[in-house]
Amino acid sequence: MADAVASGSSPEEKRTLRRIDELVRRGLVAERDADLLEQVAERYAVAVSPAMLALIDAGDCADPIARQFVPDPRELVVTPEERADPIGDRAYAPVKGIVHRYPDRALLKPTHVCPVYCRFCFRREQVGPEGEGLSAAELALAFDYIRTRPEIFEVIVTGGDPFVLGSRRLGEIVRTLDAIDHLGAIRFHTRVPVAAPEWIDDALIAALSAAKPVYVAIHANHSREITPAFRAACRRMAHAGISLLAQTVLLKGVNDDVAVLEGLLRALVAAGVKPYYLHHPDLARGTSHFRLSLAEGRALVSALRGRISGLCQPTYVLDIPGGVGKAPVAPSAARPRGDESWEVADYRGGRHFYPSLGEI
After folding, report:
1. Among this protein's residues, is 277 annotated catalytic?
2. Is 339 labeled as catalytic in the residue annotation?
3. Domain boundary residue among 22, 45, 76?
């Protein structure tokens, strides 16, 4: 990267950057890479919001914020194991806009637009300004599907990012879901409190008001994303009775360091956000430069034990390719000894005997 992004308030600095020539002009990418990056942009949407732009140190070629949002020529490399639909959404989509993978919960995807486009996104071939959202008729059919499945306890509104819809459309979705008797909870997945925290205003918060519990799961990957504006947005939601969770993707060059993860997870809890999932990166096409091995991920999660409280600990999960769901993949502290007793490791690495049921 070239010179650091200058501070100030020019019109360009107040708008989302979507074109490669804009990124070159701001010193976020080298001009020599522009042709390759145009090829990347033809395949995968590009957007760097003003809030993220303000956090990027363009003088640091390894900047963890830039790495998440600024396109990279390595995205043109597709490895044999990578897939267009790495977690198998399409196999579990009974009607447009619904993914029903688990019996008691379903995804509702009303939009494929996001405020920023993460370079590692597992839906990167579906999202973008040209992404196909739901028409009013299609959304009605999606609601009908949910109404006629009493086994569905929770609806997760995702996308894309549902918070780009605005308060009126969000309010309509919440009111419709709130009126479905068998639903017990409504959850939203969003990047907005990080990428555009100013959107979390009174109108949006009012739109999320429901008789049923409403949860907002926020995607954050680095402690520098936990800005004063982020914390203020979270306070506003929490004061309105909205429960806040966080999801993080484990990414090489962003947070594959125990101190970095510790800083992020503590910052989230201090902002009133419970770390929920730590995702092993998915096999999305063009993302191999973000992936670390499962063994490396497990080592990082093991190193967090004893460093941070249980409140800060997310569940380390892998989405099994093909659509069969998530699996917890953190190493176990307990292992059987062969005689129904167990050996259990403490956080310092010490090992201890635990008796079988018959010995208690």
Report:
1. no
2. no
3. 76
Catalytic (active site) residue 102: yes
Among 161, 215, 282, 285, which one carries the catalytic annotation? Answer: 282
Q: 189 and 114 in contact (C-beta within 8 Å)?
A: no
Is 282 labeled as catalytic in the residue annotation? yes
- Mean pLDDT for the stretch of residues 202-216: 98
Q: Share the mean pLDDT of the chain.
A: 94
Residue among 237, 193, 242 nearest 218 (CA): 193
Is 14 designated active site? no
Domain total of the chain: 3
Separation CA 136–CA 110 (nearest Å): 10
User: Is the same domain home to 205 and 241?
Assistant: yes
As a three-state string, the secondary structure of 93-122 is CCCCCEEEEECCEEEECCCCCCCCCCCCCC
Tens-digit pLDDT profile for residues 64-84: 999 999 999 999 999 999 999
Catalytic status, residue 119 = no
- Same domain? For 56 and 112 the reply is no
Determine which one of 67, 105, 224, 291 is catalytic. 105
Q: pLDDT tier at 6 (50, 70, 90 boundaries)?
A: very low
Catalytic residue among 109, 118, 124, 312: 118
**CATH number of the domain bearing residue 304:** 3.20.20.70
Q: Which domain holds residue 344?
A: 331-360
Is 234 tagged catalytic? Answer: no
pLDDT tens digits for range 226-258: 999 999 999 999 999 999 999 999 999 999 999
Q: Is 191 a catalytic residue?
A: no
Beta strand pairing call for 351-354 and 342-345: antiparallel
Judge whether 181 counts as a catalytic residue.
no
